[in-house]
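Question:
Now give any protein.
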Amino acid sequence: MLTSTPPAIRSTASPDTPAPVTAPAPRARGFGRWAAEPTAATVPLIRSRVRSVLEGWEVSAEIADVLLLAASELVGNVVLHAGGAGRLRVEVSLRGGWLLLEVADGSPSLPRLPHPRGEVDQDSEDGRGLLIVHLMATEVGGRLSVQADEFGKSVRVRVPAA
């Protein structure tokens, strides 16, 4: 089952100023949050939800492609590697001109962050997703990071909104 917090937009305008009807300005903030059981069926559902939020924020196609690929890869990694560790949580936010995609799970094991010049096993069927996400995020001026805490870990992709 997929639960969600609908995307919200918060304007930085004063309370006396009506909120703009157009796309959020670079100063605007917003977020979307979803929680789900980590199953294969969750991957396209999350990707679709992230796509809807990005379209609503009128994010460029280039940046949206990076975050959509990242959402698919990161949620897929949770399904493959941390599915037994409880629920999956995905958040996408827009703050201060930056988009942040965060995928969290309850597994304490951390993924090995890729090194762009590292050797790739040509016969392996997996192991390239984080490298691809890292390279695409870097190409548009963003970054990939991992954070662990007492509840598990989160993998984050941060890219400029414009």
User: Anything to note?
Assistant: Residues 109 and 153 are 8 Å apart (CA to CA). Residues 6-27 have pLDDT under 50 and may be disordered.
